[in-house]
UniProtKB/TrEMBL annotation:
Protein's name in the database: Extensin family protein
Pfam family, one: Extensin-like_C
Annotated region described as Disordered, given as residue ranges: 43-122
Highest classification ranks of the organism: Bacteria, Pseudomonadati, Pseudomonadota, Alphaproteobacteria, Hyphomicrobiales
Domain of life: Bacteria
Residue ranges annotated for the Extensin-like C-terminal domain, each copy included: 122-298
Organism: Bradyrhizobium sediminis
Composition-biased stretches (Basic and acidic residues): 77-94
Amino acid sequence: MNCSAEKSSRKWPYGVFGGKEAAMVTVAAVLLLLGAPVEPAAARKAGQDPWGDLFGQGKPKLRGAMLPGAVPLPRPRPAEAPRDSNKVDTDKPGPEQPAADKPASAGPDKAAEPPAPPPPSACRLALTEAIAIAPSIPDINGAGGCGGEDLVRLEAVVLPDKRKVTVKPAAILRCPMASAIADWIRTDMAPLAASLGSTVSDLDNFDSFECRGRNRVVGARLSEHGRANALDVRSLKLANGQSISLTDRTVPRELRENVLRSVCTRFATVLGPGSDWYHEDHIHLDLAARNNNYRICQWNVWDPLPQVAPLLPAERPEEAPPREGRANSE
């Protein structure tokens, strides 16, 4: 059947093929189905695509190889260049827009203030200057639980008649312990001194706060002195110059026993002569907390020392009768 060029162009919209080209397409299609490579004669020419312009689209252009290279960056803006007036400054808030990190009502920045001190304790409020001169001092937080809170420096006890008993030296104590010492002096020791015809003027403080173990023994448990909860007393001095030494055996026994009954009633621990050989020259007082309010009162009020005869004999009175030995010798 004869096909005209017009009909052929309708069947092949991409152009009219001649006999040679049609044969090449047929052979190429068969070889592709069989998996064999095809190298037409036209491909022998250097630089020519072996398939030619099969569909009339022209030879595809090959892209150049992509090689790594430095990306060009814009030049830095000179310092003297004017700012772009069209650029919106997002760092600053608008005239009606408050700053994001600051409330609209916030005033000028203020320096950080230290935390407010805790309110005074009930003991601190009760220990007024009408009872004792005891200014508050900062808390002490030492190693091993040493120190304490609600501390005062007991400088003097004020008697009901407004006279002062000076604590020498001033004692560092917890407020409850200082209050107990003041009440003991005002209620018990002032009347005792009045019975002797005088008044208490000084309190001899042997030891108060000291960060140490019991009896100053290395490795011992923390003493109540280390908690500012104890006071060692040697004596009470009177305004007339007399001194009541609590451990002096020359002081009348009855007087020392009165002091013993007073302190053992008021304090949780009382240690004196005969307790543990560490308190032979002073009296230890503290408010140690124990189960069931257990108390310790160990203070032996020794009898006065016996009168010792003099080493040398006294002179013989003239009216004394002669010795028998001397009379016999005559």
